[in-house]
Specification:
The protein has 262 residues and is an alpha+beta fold. Helices cover 60% and strands 6% of the residues. It is built from 10 helices and 4 strands, in the order βαβαββαααααααα. Strands 2-1-3-4 form a 4-stranded mixed β-sheet, sandwiched between helices.
Length: 262
Amino acid sequence: MNSPPSDVRLKLLTFAPMVDSETSRLLLAYYGVPYRERDNLIPLVMLKALVHGGTGYVPLLYGDGLKLTSPRPIAEHFDSKLPAERRVIPAEASLRGQVEADWNTFNGEMGADTAAFAYHHLLPERRLMVPVFAAPVPPLQAKLTPFLYPLMKVLFRALLKLGPERAAAAHARIRATFEKTDKRIADGRPYLCGDRITLGDFGLAAASAPLLLPRGYGAKMPALEQMPPVLRTAMEELRQRPTAAFVQRLYAEGFAAARAGR
């Protein structure tokens, strides 16, 4: 990936593996917005988000007078600058209802389930996860990652309410969502709502990416063969679904084609 020009004013403050961080990356690429990503460890990123955005939540896009926390405000802000036919949040009532339902399903429900299922199995794997967390952050934070890792595990377990039952339930819901999506895209449509890209497509791609590892995914993750056995088996099963091929096509062609107006 090419570095943005040195005069880019917008910064995306993130914790790289978050579903919402990937959603924001995909949206900003679609809108053609140049930015610099600033990845930090939890809880340090929360402190920086409090200073720059006033909320303590990430991802945060800030600079040049903007303070946009989470992908939905990012979409709403930049959508307003596009022609109506290219907006990912359509104004038409007939389509808007479906898009809102998709956003709730993929960014809301499946995004939370993906985090709960993946982190439940990955956090015990310190050897795998320390390099993942350390890779995108500043050098000093990278050096501190092994020492901060126990605290990060405690925070994740508390924030995501991790546990075996929660992980099993999350996996079951993810599979059910994939089954519904498989049926919906069986007619060969290029996007969830037909020929037009919408916010739901970004939600689906980002929420499923940690489990599918599509080419072009913007966060570092362990390779499939390194995954803990239960997680690897689940990922291999999901990667065989039609929805997985749909997501890979979005990453490879769909987002770029939509941006170009094709």
